[in-house]
Design goal:
The chain has 219 residues and is α+β, with helices and mostly antiparallel strands. The protein contains 6 helices and 11 strands. The chain is 31% helix and 21% strand. A hairpin with a 2-residue loop joins strand 10 and strand 11. The longest helix has 19 residues. Bound molecules: benzoic acid. The site of benzoic acid (BEZ) has 8 residues, from helix 2.
């Protein structure tokens, strides 16, 4: 079990079956951003709504150079049938891979198993995989880890928002404030000295020496 995956860790490689065939993870994501997000089980209500939402938002992730990969602790055959249900119920057409992880091999590698909830057990008495989100950059470095319990569905728009924040902070020397969405002002990174800040960001607004806002060029 990985156990020690942190922001800044190399994303572990794995090979696994999926609804689109065998996936070598590192090969598949080569040169792209990637989001690996896990699900406890196929044919479950919250997961069905989540996958439909991710499927509908996939073009937005693609625009940002992000490949989506779901993972669910069931087989490829099961995923295939479930994907038809997801389309019927949500109108979302899942085209990205859903990793088949019935034995929790990838879930253990990515520490996607919780241990606090003893009722969190699936049909075959294995611990359920929780709802984890790993955002991985083109250097295969883990940049964001988010974990939710089975009872709480994620917010696909929020995950898109944090991709925008990561990509903006990689491009410019900035950070993004609370509830930021693209188009709003950002915070100049504290590592940028006062003179450089004025040069880099002509519309700099200094609220405090440590809190300096600027607009970003519109994409
Ligand atoms: C769900 O997706 O609805 C779910 C999955 C596993 C346990 C509980 C709920």
């Amino acid at each position: 079990m990985a156990g020690s995956l942190r922001l800044g860790s190399q994303a572990p490689d794995f090979t696994a079956d999926s609804n689109v065939g065998k996936i070598g993870f590192h090969n598949y994501i080569e040169g792209s951003w990637a989001i690996l997000f896990s699900h406890p089980q196929d044919f479950t209500p919250v997961c069905t709504t989540e996958l439909g939402a991710f499927a509908k938002l996939e073009p937005e992730f693609t625009k940002r150079g992000v490949k989506l990969l779901g993972l669910s602790a069931d087989t490829t055959e099961s995923h295939g049938t479930w994907i038809k249900d997801i389309a019927e119920v949500t109108g979302g057409n899942v085209q990205f891979p859903i990793i088949a992880d019935p034995d929790r091999v990838v879930a253990n590698k990515y520490d996607m198993i919780d241990y606090q909830d003893p009722t969190n057990i699936d049909r075959s008495s294995l611990p359920l995989t929780i709802r984890s989100v790993f955002i991985i950059d083109p250097k295969k470095i883990i940049r964001i880890i988010i974990s939710y319990p089975a009872s709480t569905g994620r917010n696909a728009t929020e995950i898109l928002r944090v991709v925008d924040s990561l990509q903006a902070s990689d491009k410019y020397k900035i950070a993004t404030p609370i509830d930021w969405v693209p188009g709003q002002d950002v915070i100049v990174a504290n590592s940028v000295k006062a003179d450089e800040a004025k040069q880099l960001f002509p519309d700099l607004r200094i609220i405090k020496p440590y809190l300096r806002y600027t607009a970003l060029p519109q994409a």
